[in-house]
Amino acid sequence: MGLLAPYRGRWTLATVALILGGAVNLGLPQTARVAIDDAIRRGDLGTLDLIALLALGGFVLLGALTMLRHYLMSWLGNRVVADLRDRTFRHLLRFPPGYFHERRTGELVSRLTTDIEALQGSVGSEFSLALRATLTVVGGLTILLFTNPTLTGVMVLVVPPLSILAVAFGRAIRRRSREIQDLVAEANGGLKESLAGIETVQTFNAEAIEAERYKKQVFAAFRTSLRVAIFRGGFAGAVQLGAFGAMTLIIWLGAKGVVAGDTTPGEVVVFLGYTLMVASALATLAEIWGNLQRAMGASERIFDLLDETPTIRDAPGAHPLAAPRGELAFEGVRFTYPTRPDVQVLTDVSFRAAPGETVALVGRSGAGKSTIAALVQRFWDPAEGCVCVDGHDLRTLQLESLRDAIATVAQDPVLFSGSIRDNIAYGRPDAPLEDIVAAARDAKIADFVEGLPDGWDTLVGERGVKLSGGQRQRVAIARAILADPRILILDEATSHLDSENEALVHAALERLMEGRTTLIIAHRLSTVQKAHRILVLDGGRVVEAGTHEELMERGALYQKLAASQLG
Q: Looking at the structure, do residues 343 and 253 belong to the same domain, yes or no?
């Protein structure tokens, strides 16, 4: 109901159409009573013709109201699903990268697809049918009560047991339905991993292993769905047995009443008609109740996700980073990852980078270099100390304005499956083509792009697979140039390139670094020799700092690293 609240106008109109349609539907059987008792028994053909016209008009009106109700409810169901997908995806995008490291992407995708899809019919057509069936049951029983209290008693004896049965079966179906959604999500997670790593799968001839793993997960969901089907089928069968058994009893008692002269044939026919309507509505409610419970199981998973709060978010009273200069400072920073609280990743890290200064971070794998870069972008918050930009603790700044001031060129840059133009303009979607071309020229990629048949509209494929490593790297550099950040992070930006591409990328990086505060993360020391300052990390601490020449003269860890790489 909360999801429908923004569309209360359409919902109200659909409800009015539903109530009017229900009223017409409940009134139509009365035409049969009048036709039998007043027209046929008396031989009044004029009255019979009038009744037939009234009934036909009632059916036309009922059809129009049904069409209006169905359209409005279908619109509401589809709109709510679209809104929920949009809301869920926007919510997911607020979580820092660490959240996705702890969860399988395929499972999250399953929540946006399979789980939300399960709600569509329930919010739309099934919810409408449930209201209509409820109106029919209540209205039909009320009319039956005034028509023949004795026969109505037979119907009433059937309803309470069926209601209790509905609650019991509904709980079981809901529980099983959530199990199915969990199993499907797990299967989707494995499927995405297999397809994303298809080269590794085929390299190790693991197709059969992956197929068997997926089959086991899919058939586990299938077996659970069979149990749900048995529950739902048994429940629907019990409802129909009770409803139509009561109807048979009513026909028998009604026929005896006609023979005894206690009731008229028209009253029996009308009572039978209402009995059929009520029985059919009860059967519909039984089926819809099961479907609604299945949807409830799916919705619980969705709302559990929406109820999660990002660990990294704007603090109350956070202010924007106005006119950033790019001054960066770490002050006594200590950090551990939540998944490994016993491992100290950074210990008392302190340093400053003046606006426009290039600072390189070097050290063995696991020394904490990439963690420092992640803290600058506020993907995590330090356990102690603070990370500051222009003298502001990052926790006091609005995330959007902070990240507007930062750009990253990674070791394996992520391109999206659009055009080269779209990927360069990713940080500035409204950038004119001339700015995109200028950024590409600075990144040494423009000549290559203009030589392609589709030029700037060339599609790069998923994750940029249609481009070489050097081309992807230069597109990422052009993207960073166009974003015009004050702080630049280069994370192993040339580590996978051959010498020719490395020279091109280096030239592009030198253009990108001009006038920007730059953090360079590198294992290859040849890429950091021109840095204004080099910080050597070991075991999460800054153990040395200075220029390349100064560190080489000291004969400590940096010199050992250099000796092993540079000779």
A: no
